Amino acid sequence: MVRNPFSISFGKKPYQYIERNMVMSEILDELQSDVIQSQCFMLTGVRGSGKTVTMTAIENQLREDDDWIVIGLNAERDMLQGLTAKLYDTKKYLKDFFEANINLSAFGIGTAIQNAAPVADIESALEIILKEIKKKNKRLLVTVDEVYNSEYVRQFASAFQILIRQDLPIFLIMAGLYENIHTLEDEKNLTFLYRAPKFDMEPLSLPAIKRSYMKILDISEDMANDMARLTKGYPFAYQALGKLVWESSGHVLDDEVLFGLDVLLEEYVYNKIWDEMSEKDRWYASFIAQKETLKVSELLEMSGQKKNEFSQYRARLDHKGIIDISKRGYVSLKLPRFAEYVKNHYIP
Question: Could you give the CA distance from residue 200 to residue 170 in angstroms, rounded to a whole number?
Fold first, then answer.
């Protein structure tokens, strides 16, 4: 039996994958440039929008370049110590880069080195290592997924700011939900993050999705077009719908497939998104869900709210990736079949 090429596993790059070429190209060009403009990049978007997969694709490409060291960190643990330990524990880097003996035994890293005093500060240790890396004309990329405003992340971001001011070759890509990135930027000593390039994971190209479905599922152009429109360019929906049609008898798009899609969207993504929405967010979504595209004036009339009262919630829902406000004076739900979810779950 031929393996299903579509996957709904989070984080791991699926076998069948539509790359975000513009985002990747812009970040990679900047990282590999001789003249450095930015050393920190942010990937934001709703759950299932492809942040982790895009970051992983960038990591994999740079790992093939001998001029780069690529290390991923966990935002739940001490990131400064974690980065230093990972650099130290990698024999290749010790052999190729370190000309100085560095005693990190004070942090439980490595063993004590005779005639070398232990480094007392973890930031100092990282600075020493980065200077050794710079001597070899190498660059270090650090990636952090599911970033949020935690003590470890704040500590690391503060240290990172100092290191880049010293012109050391360290680069950072952080991926996270918009609200988590936003609260991190608001920290008074981390305002430099506001200047970091941010890439919102916009919907995938519908023609690219259609072409992919036609090629893999061997279906008609009309059916592939219907499927692409159904996904609204949402990466998780692209994978989930492709998986369900692949497994269906005769590769069809029927009520059973639609039901399966609703279940996967609900269990894997929408329940979590719904939990993170405020009661007023849900209330406004219940009105927006009543039409494919709704005039803002009609929404205000239906809800009995004034324009300035709705504005703050419109901005919140837009930043969360839930609504589309690209058409002036109109609003619609951005996520596929989220209207059906709202109708089934909103209880006034």
Answer: 23
Residue-wise pLDDT tens digits, 154-179: 999 999 999 999 999 999 999 999 88
- Beta strand spans in 167-288 (E): 170-176, 198-200
Whether the Cβ atoms of residue 312 and residue 264 lie closer than 8 Å to each other: no
How far from 176 is each of 50, 58, 76, 265, 333, CA to CA, in Å?
A: 11, 16, 13, 19, 21
Place of tokens 């998780």: 236
Instruction: Give the bridge partners for 199, in sequence order.
Output: 43
* 111 has a pLDDT exceeding 50: no
Q: Which residue did the predictor score with more confidence, 339 or 18?
A: 339
Burial of 340 (0-12, 13-18, 19+ CB in 10 A): middle
d(C-alpha 60, C-alpha 311), whole Å:
41
Q: How far apart are CA 36 and CA 332, in angstroms?
A: 40
Q: Which residues contact 97 (CB under 8 A, 6 or more apart)?
A: 129, 132, 133, 135, 136, 138
Specify which residues 332 forms β-bridges with: 324
